[in-house]
Fold each of these.
Amino acid sequence: MTTIKFEKITKDILDSFVLNSHEKIIYVILKSFEKAPRGIRISINYLKERTGIKSKTTIIKYLDNLQNLGYITRVQKQFNKPSFYNVGSKGRQDTIQAHNRKKKGIRDGLKRYLNGDNVIRLVPKID
């Protein structure tokens, strides 16, 4: 006998007119990994397989929309590695802080670069 697994989803998700059917399915897939020992770490390719969506760009667009609406948070710690997801508001503050630290590091590095002598001037400096 096979066991049937259920996932508890709030009625707000199912009744939402803001989310399309693919976004709802992606949310359910992410929610199903919520209790995984290492957290929700799912690749774009896995989501493509499970949803039948062929385009990586489309999956990312749907994930962006879920994140912008506050249903999920997502952090990609390394390029070409699966993102870490949180469903709901859990971990949202940590994600925002990590994102702000990353932006600050990039901004500070750019300031150091532009203030140095390694800038090539395309227009001669006029005194």
Amino acid sequence: MTSTNDIAAAIKAARRTLKLRQADLAAAAGVGLRFLIELEAGKPTAQLGKTMAVLNALGLECDLVSRSAASARRGKP
């Protein structure tokens, strides 16, 4: 993932897979509904702590890797 839109799409897809409404996920993560709506829209200034709470509520984790390592995993030069 290289953009806020990528993260937003992953969060939205995971929420839909779990058949959660935005309000339900916001409550489970302890964030406001407005925050979640903006996060799923790809807001670039979303707070990291709250974003991590949403990821945790969805059972997702965030791993940071160097671009060169990510490219190698995808088989790109």
Amino acid sequence: MKQLSIIICAATIIFLWVTTPAFSQNQDEIVTPMLGKGVCKADIEKFCKDIKPGGGRIWSCLKSNNDRLSQECKDHIAMVQEKRKEFIQACKDDSKKFCKGIPRGKGRIASCLKSHEAELSDTCRALFQK
């Protein structure tokens, strides 16, 4: 189950990386599903309960309350950021090659990469198969 969560997380990270110009606007797409239902749920409910998701508002709220977040949430955020870097490095060329012109949002880039899994570079494909 933990590996499935990491794979879903990684796919979302790929999507966000491919849409780097809008990364800050799309942070909630990664933060809310991953953190809002997991280890950071209590922190989001405590510090960001009145924040409307979207436009990076939840992410900004967490960042502004970083010193008050639980250690588990801080550790999870750090892990997510590290996984994002890993995917950026491993899947950059594949996303440009196979997903050029795919509209941003709703995991479309990650789905695109997944649909080309057999054609992906070894390093990118390995991340999908973890």
